[in-house]
Amino acid sequence: FLTLYYCNHSFFFVILQEAFGGYQDCTCKQGFSGNGIICNDTNECDYYWDNQCNNGYCINTIGSYVCSCYPGFVEEPGSGCVEADECANDNLNDCHALAVCTNYYGSYACSCPYGYYGDGRYCEINECQNENICPRTSYCVKSNGSFSCLDPCSNYTVIDEQWRLTTRPSNINNYWYHCDHHLQGWFRFQGLQEQRIPEYCVPEHSCGTHSPMWLNGVHPTTEEGIANRTACANWAGNCCLWSSPVTISACPGGFYVYRLYGTPACHLALNCSTAKCSSDEECKKIKGISQCHCKQDLYENSKPNLECGSSQIKLSYSKCLLDRSGYDTSTIHLRDYSCMANIEREDISYVRIDMLPRSGSCGVNESHITYMNTLYIKPKGDGIIQRGEVKVGFSCSYPLNMAVSLWIAVNPFVSTIDINIGGTGTFKATMALYQFADYTGPYEGSEVWMSTESMAYVGVMVENPGQPNLVVVMKDCYATPTAESWHPVRYSIIKNSCRNLNDPTISVAENGVSLQGRFSVQVFKFIGYYDKLYLHCQIQLCDVTTQFCVPVSTVTLSYNIGTEYREYHARKVSRSLASTINLYHIVLCNSQYFLCCNIFYMKHSVI
């Protein structure tokens, strides 16, 4: 029979009353410990063998415990924290519907399949997988929602470490070696002279590394555009023990850029050499070092080569001709002694000196600005006498009038054009289409669609010409239905520096103030079968120290004044301005007279 006896009623334990064979006992329930009269909670988290939370945190509770599992694990009754297969349950992963889910112990990974771009949480078609999506002279860069075709010749990182040179002595005894395992992207090797990856097997322990890499093949020509080649690493007597792909672009101007994908091992590094010996040189090894030395032939062409660039002027002489004529090529300098020459090898070897176009000895007329300087060359001395320096004067003229176009419609693009006039120097003008009203966020990619309800924000910039007193003035900006700027169908946005007053959506944010001009206009469509819109601008560089460059729009007469009186008063205003500023003319807009700055003509006119 069962007889009930009293045990402790504390909520920390369970009362168990028994009678069996005359023996009574109180025992604590599982999760508690004590004599039955007094029961205390057992902390299962104190010892790992008392719980099953191997892959999580143990949290003690009254009479039991719970497991807080680590990410990638779930709790199962009686088993504790077990590994979760997130890929088997869509609610446990955030992979994109097109992505591939891969389960790992305690985690998972999302990856987009081939032909798609993204981090696995989001995937979209990768247009860059199409090899023909970009012109052969550009490469494709994919981003979320779009892609861009970039010219590697203007989008690269310069590498100019001197330890890479093949002319450096062997570093076999050096403790530290360089490694290019991290190099990813487009690079240009540059130093005192243009450099490139050598096309011959480079000895071990040279160029600052264990195993120098060289180009197993020849560099492409400019006509080839971008080409794929293989870079080899020399080690253990094998000139191509390791190899790595490399993409090369031959750029206008005689230099190369390389798309590098890292090196297959360490310590491997890409090295660079000057271009192969020129046609007027031969390679000779002197004291264990191979270098280019002038041939003994005579040279007839003694004329220097002058290049007038937008941001740099280059003057070069035949190095071998100067050597044979008794001149010391190491002494060539400008008026500023710190501007020294360096050696450059192309079809023949040159001694080249570079300089920036700067104000000072310059001249300006209505159409050009001219920079002048002097080159000094010392003859070689015999240790006894020294003859005087030879002075070579030179100058570069740059046009102030330029034109630039932007292709903006189905395929709007940030376009750049170099303006060459009369074989003189060049300034670079660029036109860009922006997404936002503060002229930020330039559109990229080969296609941008814009509705006729959206605004086009357009900027015109001139690369720094080295003359701080020059500003950009937009003279005429207009739209055409084709890429030809001379197309007879056109719509004027800015005319004679003034905006088109018949279009209230046009706004000129900046003109004649700095090296950039900015305007906005609501997108429109030409009537007919035209489905594209092209923008063009004729611009001029204006000298703020000698000209009034900011266009002025001021109402001078009311609308109700008679035509005859308006014409007379306009002539009168024009004559009075002509006697003082010489830069204004009267423009009739919407039956009102407006005063606009005209920096493009030296004469005055009444329209």
TrEMBL record:
PROSITE patterns: ASX_HYDROXYL (PS00010), EGF_2 (PS01186), EGF_3 (PS50026), EGF_CA (PS01187), ZP_2 (PS51034). Residues 41-82, 83-124 form the EGF-like domain. It is a lipid-anchor; GPI-anchor. CDD domains: EGF_CA (cd00054). GO terms for molecular function: calcium ion binding. One of its GO terms (cellular component) is side of membrane. Its main location: membrane. The keyword Repeat applies. It comes from the Eukaryota. Gene3D superfamilies: Laminin, Zona pellucida, ZP-C domain. It is found in: Cell membrane; Secreted. This is Uromodulin. Keywords: Cell membrane, Disulfide bond, EGF-like domain, Glycoprotein, GPI-anchor, Lipoprotein, Membrane, Repeat, Secreted, Signal. Pfam families: D8C_UMOD, EGF_3, EGF_CA, Zona_pellucida. Residues 307-556 form the ZP domain. InterPro entries: D8C_UMOD/GP2/OIT3-like (IPR057774), EGF (IPR000742), EGF-like_Ca-bd_dom (IPR001881), EGF-type_Asp/Asn_hydroxyl_site (IPR000152), EGF_Ca-bd_CS (IPR018097), Growth_fac_rcpt_cys_sf (IPR009030), NELL2-like_EGF (IPR024731), NOTCH1_EGF-like (IPR049883). Coiled coil: none annotated.
